[in-house]
């Protein structure tokens, strides 16, 4: 029996994304060729052009997949914390620390900005801002965060965490930079925390 067309399309896309992710993660965007993706996936260049337009389009799809996985991991970090505030801080710090992981470092924080431009303008950024805004509204309702405009706080935190991750990913000594970046970031978040009066 013939397989449904949608299933075949999804499988082709998944194969190309997996091949692109492997190539981008190991040899980098600049060195990866169309043949690396299509050969590994057992597909033609036509399939790549049809689904993603070009190499840049494939990179965007790979980044969306990695971003979704990062979000899932970060949600687990915040869910396992003893308080909502601690979960929020731990989640933000964990995002920054992910810049030490080779695949994320290379694809998300080196090649991604080099090819796709300013990370704050990526198509997944509005979703990140919205998620941060929801968390901030909850923290404000709990009395944990100062009375600050929600979107302003979300953009401040998003921009700072992205900048810290980019700093780590492009540093000569990423491990050392990660330690000071996370410490500084946590201190910044503490500045947004409402201080309880004795």
From TrEMBL:
Domain HTH tetR-type: 10-70
Keywords assigned: DNA-binding
SUPFAM superfamilies assigned: Homeodomain-like
DNA-binding residue intervals: 33-52
Keyword Flavoprotein among UniProt keywords: no
Database matches in PROSITE patterns: HTH_TETR_2
GO MF terms held by the record: DNA-binding transcription factor activity; transcription cis-regulatory region binding
Protein name listed in UniProt: TetR family transcriptional regulator
Source organism of the structure: Phyllobacterium zundukense
